[in-house]
Amino acid sequence: MTFFLAVAAAAWHGKKNHAQQAVAALQAAEHLRAAYEAAAAQPMALLQQRGRHMSRPLQHQHAAALRHAVPDLAEQILAEPGWPALAATLADAQAAGHSPVDLLTEATQRRELGSATFISDVLVWRLRHLAQLPADPVAAPSQIARTRSVPAPASTTPTAIKATKATSDNTHRR
C-alpha cells in the first residue's frame, strides 16, 4: 500500500509541477519496491517450492478453481512463474476451511490487477490476507494443525470453556 501511495504522490506532484517532489516520491516508491522484493524473496521461494512439489491432482484442482473464478486471467496466471506459489497458497487456504474459488473471486474484485507485473504474486498476498494465513508460509501448516487439534467448544458455558482450556494446556505440555 505504501508503494502505491508513493506512486500516487508522485503523480499528484507531477500534475502540480512540483518536479523535485515528484522525483523524490518516485525514488521512494522504488526503494519501497526493492525492500518488498527483498523481504518477500524467502517466503515466496518457500511457497514456490511447496507448489512445485504438490501432487498433480491437487495442482489441477487449484488450476480449475482459478479458471472458474477468473476465466479472463487464468491462462496468463497459470503461465506466470509465481503460479506454484499461488497453488500452494490456495492449498493452505483450503486446508484452513476456505473455498479457493470464493477467495479468488473476492481477491480479484477488490482492486485492479492491470498494473501488476505478476498477477499471481499479488494474489498470493491478497489470498493470504483474506484467509488470515500467516505471511510466512513455514508457519501455515503448523498453525492450521494447531487450530484443528483443539475442537471448538460445543457450548460457551464456563465448564465447557474450562474443559477446552484444560485439553489445550495438556496438548501444549506434550
- Outline the low-pLDDT stretches: 142-174
Query: In percent, how helical is the residue content?
Result: over 70%
- Helix/strand class: mainly alpha
Residues in β-strands, percent: under 5%
- Shape by Cα distribution: elongated
Secondary-structure element sequence? HHHHHHHHH
Counting DSSP H or I runs of 4 or more residues, the number of helices is 9
Q: Radius of gyration over alpha carbons?
A: 21 Å
Number of strands: 0
* Average residue-wise pLDDT: 79
Biggest beta sheet summary? none
Distance between the termini: 42 Å
Give a written overview of the molecule.
- This protein has 174 residues and is an all-alpha fold.
- Helix content is 75%, strand content 0%.
- It is built from nine helices and no strands.
- It has helices at 2-15, 19-52, 56-69, 74-79, 83-95, 100-110, 119-130, 139-149, 158-173.
- 26% of the residues are buried.
- Mean pLDDT is 79; it is low at 142-174.
